[in-house]
Amino acid sequence: MKISLQIKLIVFLLTLMPFGFYGQSCIDYHKRTCEGSDNKLFKYNPTSRSAIFIKGESSEFGLDVFRGKDYRISICYDEPLGEMLVFKIRDEEDKILYDNRKDGNVLVLEFSALETRRLTIYVKVPEDEEGEDEGDSQDLTRKPNLVGCVGVLIEHMNRPKRGF
Question: Domain extents for the chain?
Fold first, then answer.
């Protein structure tokens, strides 16, 4: 009985290993994969993040922006996650300030902060349309389990003075 428990534990741990190794490869994914600005005035913002995602999953995190600074947000992701990613920015009242689906699904946004405030960055990996069943069937369907890294690279700089 004791041996079978040990074998079950070993098998369980071996099944989790690929996710552990994959998760480790997502560390600093945004630094390695997302394309930073060519403008040398933009500096890395420590709020930048990387995470492991499964199709259909979403996540969000806070970003404090400060008046007088320009920001650049670049999103990158692994190919197995599909051809599109949803990227939104919301304010404290949950008002959507930006939605990349209304902007040609672009993955890079530059903006100026007109006031200091807290924003929320929302990222979602949509599910495949073919995986969604519109029928009346109550049967179980296989859920896609494609896993990949998503990176959000945030850069900032002091807004350059304009004019003479």
Answer: 39-128+144-159
pLDDT per position as a tens digit, 67-122: 999 999 999 999 989 889 999 999 999 999 999 999 999 999 999 999 999 999 99
* CB-based contact 121:81 (threshold 8 Å): no
Distance CA 47, CA 61 (A): 9
Between CA 32 and CA 88 the distance in angstroms is 23
Its pTM stands at 0.76
CATH 2.60.120.330 fits 39-128+144-159, yes or no: no
Q: In terms of C-beta density within 10 A (0-12 exposed, 13-18 middle, 19 or more buried), how is residue 33 classed?
A: middle
Q: Enter the tokens of residue 43.
A: 């500096």
> 7 CB contacts (<8 Å, ≥6 apart)?
none
**Residue with the two structure tokens 């979403």:** 58
Q: What residues are paired with 72 via a beta bridge?
A: 110, 155
Cα 93 from Cα 82, distance rounded (Å): 31
Q: Using one digit for the tens of pLDDT, what is the confidence trace for 15-36?
A: 544 444 444 589 999 999 999 9
